[in-house]
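lol forgot to send this yesterday, sorry. struct tokens for the thing we talked abt
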């Protein structure tokens, strides 16, 4: 029996696409999720896509007992750790929850991995650890100056993982700094299904065009960018998921810590994304100019050359595919329930 990859947060937006990508590559997953920000309904969709059963453990990544039981019950060879809290705005109001889930969750997980003799870990970090970079595109060696509680928890987990690997050469850890994941699986069976009003641009446009919300606020038209709106590096969630597989493969022959940006390597402004989405759905996006959002930065996009050099990975799906797939998912309901 080959070993499975434990995907914490495997029912979430990114985790579910990683499980689907693992299945495409013929690899088994075990999902650990507490459904705090995800729906159990995703699992049946993943089983449909995979064509095989996918074990699900409902539990919290901070729960040592649940982790121990999971490693005892399943033959796990590696872990992709996506479980965490990720809303920038919420993080300043709830620092305790963010530090507890994001940092303590990772410490508990690493302890359980150590006990179980599993040393391969891919960690979901974020380009938010950079804050506003001095130079663009931002490379992995740029200074880390996160502007939010959320970003500081990600930076702290990165440091913790480097300390672990520094003390024990058996660890094989990839720290993946995501740019802005968006889009959905082209089957429209899985996609981003935020509970409540979406914070992020693409899911909010989906629901606004579908008539669920009035208008998409454009958070600032006075940023120091060519059209005055914020610039981000949007990466198709399936490209991102495939980056995790490439990282797992790389770790198989490279112990130690690897830190990589996963992005498309080019930036689009909010208005450019709105235009691409309008093209994909054939309808106008209802929008209104609004003040800048707290904690936002003007512009960030990745230097993704290290991922290409070390993993042979690059994003292959562009902004049009992101918008078409996101809209297809929305038209299919955009939810699991
Ligand atoms: N935006 C709007 N209106 C909205 C939502 C977003 O104008 O209703 C703008 C933002 O100001 C920004 C861009 O669209 O310029 C993208 O915003 P998102 O909220 O979609 O994404 P962020 O870049 O703020 O955040 C995302 C993830 C975070 C992660 C961060 C890293 O959601 O988890 O990328 O930069 F930390």
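and heres what i got for the seq, position by position
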């Amino acid at each position: 029996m080959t070993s499975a990859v434990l995907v914490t947060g495997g029912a979430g937006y990114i985790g579910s696409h990683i499980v689907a990508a693992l299945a495409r590559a013929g690899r088994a997953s075990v999902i650990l999720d507490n459904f705090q920000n995800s729906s159990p309904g995703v699992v049946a969709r993943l089983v449909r896509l995979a064509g095989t059963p996918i074990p699900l453990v409902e539990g919290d990544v901070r729960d040592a007992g649940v982790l121990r039981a999971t490693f005892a019950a399943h033959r796990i060879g590696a872990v992709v750790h996506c479980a965490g809290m990720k809303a920038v705005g919420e993080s300043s109001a709830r620092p305790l929850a963010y530090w507890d889930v994001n940092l303590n969750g990772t410490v508990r997980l690493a302890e359980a991995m150590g006990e179980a003799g599993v040393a391969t870990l891919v960690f979901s970090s974020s380009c938010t650890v950079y804050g506003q970079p001095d130079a663009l595109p931002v490379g992995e060696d740029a200074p880390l100056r996160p502007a939010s509680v959320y970003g500081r928890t990600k930076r702290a987990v990165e440091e913790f993982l480097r300390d672990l690997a520094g003390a024990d050469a058996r660890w094989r850890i990839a720290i993946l700094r995501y740019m802005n994941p968006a889009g959905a699986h082209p089957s429209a069976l899985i996609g981003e299904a935020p509970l409540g009003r979406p914070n992020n641009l693409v899911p909010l446009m989906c629901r606004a065009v579908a008539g669920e919300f009035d208008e998409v606020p454009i958070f600032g038209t006075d940023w120091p960018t060519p059209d005055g709106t914020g610039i981000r590096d949007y990466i198709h969630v399936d490209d991102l998921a495939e980056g995790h597989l490439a990282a797992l493969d790389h770790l198989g022959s490279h112990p130690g810590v690897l830190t990589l940006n996963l992005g498309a390597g080019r930036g689009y402004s909010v208005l450019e994304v709105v235009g691409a989405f309008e093209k994909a759905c054939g309808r106008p996006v209802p929008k209104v100019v609004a003040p800048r959002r707290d904690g936002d930065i003007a512009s960030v996009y990745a230097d993704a050359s290290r991922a290409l050099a070390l993993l042979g990975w690059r994003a292959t799906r562009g902004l049009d595919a992101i918008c078409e797939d996101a809209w297809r998912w929305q038209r299919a309901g955009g939810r699991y329930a």
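The pocket of UFG is lined by residues 86, 88, 126-128, 180, 199-201, 204, 216-219, 230, 232, 270, 293, 296, 300 (CB under 6 Å). anyway ping me if u want another try
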